[in-house]
């Protein structure tokens, strides 16, 4: 493939940033890739494993002269990092991010950025239960959607260039408006994650069911909940705090529905249960027909060809 | 392997029974295997695909002379089927079942059985989202647990023979008391399934998030919920109606916990969320250390080597 950016800076060196580095190298998409992480230990690991062509000692140093700067830090610190790098940004550079929520990130980051850069938020719908600089791999984004969330009046050339980078890294891309993104993700990701965390917490509390039993028999349905519940706590705390309204709205609807089903169980209303379970089959058929499932359901977590 | 039973009768010819047939043939574990299904269409499909050595026109005919009779029908009809076959059971035969709940099945089946047979309930923790006579495959039980639930004063020889059959079909086996089984399954399977059904129902209701979006971006976490929610409605209706108390108890604990997390989100109590998400990591580590997970998390649904 052809090079899309001469200089790319990755701020934050966790799962997504490290996967982006290996994916950009696989595709020959970037010239020099610089990186910075807050923790000295992470920077040392990065140098040790060859993650980034140059690991810098400050975010400002990393973004100097970069044509693309990607903020790969938890949503909660995006604003602070944007303020820190703003003075060092090269005129004409594109700034992007990989946050799981978009409205809050835009509100936190945009005000700090100078007029001479383009801000093009993005969100790759890919991850694993692992985190840190050693967790990345080049195939993470293959056949997965990356949502591009351009702001009003965004420079189309900048948007299309970033889109080309993500496609070069293997992703399918779509453009979406920020608030709609946050609602769609609340349904397809954020609420399911909170629900999985909750179910694992319940199992962990139940002393009559020993951990070893919950663990041994987890394949009966519980196991994937635990995979989700092993995701990075800081990332998910920030997701829920920053997509609060949409998540609470979906969870509200969820508890309403759950109560209706609990009531049907209590009242032994088999017809209600059967009708409900029959209806939910349709959406599954839709996913299969859309070619969006494989034999390895994985909460978007396992690398594979789609 | 060596033959364990001369004559086995499978009552009901869905996913579990058809997988048992192919697994018994793979292992050479049974002489003649007879089968019966209520629906003529199912019986015709079975004959067409060679499912069972002999497909019978009645349950009584199928169990005649059988050394092992396995009830593979929905939990809600186990009692009626037991009453129907009781007079035809061969003295010394073992009667078993594959129901996902055990106390209700024992209460429904045991009273109908003559003293001259041994009743040894069992539950294979394996399945797929598919159902019907064409859905079975020999590897379904490989490396999966099958729980054997002997009654008080059960004949040990009968218990050990059935255990040997399940091990011959590839399963790991454990013995468990009925009520404890129902509680463990409520935690590891029944509650997670109801929760997944609920989340899919919510997504299906949300008109602002089009089905196509929910489907396209399902890999972000939602997809496995839909896999579960495609499971057989009749089977699951009966599971919830027949494991009512344990399921409602777990769901009650679940909603308590969920409300606490919703409140933490509303109050923006990041420390509570972070502490909770950190705690749930431990149980996941336990599952990995116990060798009970693979790269294909599947709600116990996809055939594979463990």
UniProtKB/TrEMBL annotation, chains A, B:
Origin species, per record, is Roseovarius faecimaris
Give the protein's recorded name. prephenate dehydrogenase
Q: Name one Pfam family in it.
A: PDH_C
Tell me where in this chain the Prephenate/arogenate dehydrogenase domain is found: 6-295
Gene Ontology MF term list? NAD+ binding; prephenate dehydrogenase (NAD+) activity; prephenate dehydrogenase (NADP+) activity
Reactions catalysed according to its record: prephenate + NAD(+) = 3-(4-hydroxyphenyl)pyruvate + CO2 + NADH
The broad enzyme category this protein falls into is: oxidoreductase
Q: SUPFAM superfamilies of this UniProt entry?
A: 6-phosphogluconate dehydrogenase C-terminal domain-like, NAD(P)-binding Rossmann-fold domains
Q: Which family does it belong to?
A: Belongs to the prephenate/arogenate dehydrogenase family.
Q: InterPro entries from the entry?
A: 6-PGluconate_DH-like_C_sf, NAD(P)-bd_dom_sf, PDH_C, PDH_N, Preph/Arog_dehydrog, Prephen_DH
Pathway of this protein? Amino-acid biosynthesis; L-tyrosine biosynthesis; (4-hydroxyphenyl)pyruvate from prephenate (NAD(+) route): step 1/1
Instruction: Give the UniProt keywords, A-Z.
Output: Amino-acid biosynthesis, Aromatic amino acid biosynthesis, NAD, Oxidoreductase, Tyrosine biosynthesis
EC code: 1.3.1.12
Which PANTHER family does UniProt cross-reference here?
PREPHENATE DEHYDROGENASE, PREPHENATE DEHYDROGENASE [NADP(+)]
Q: Which NCBIfam families match?
A: PRK07502.1
Enumerate the Gene Ontology biological process terms: tyrosine biosynthetic process
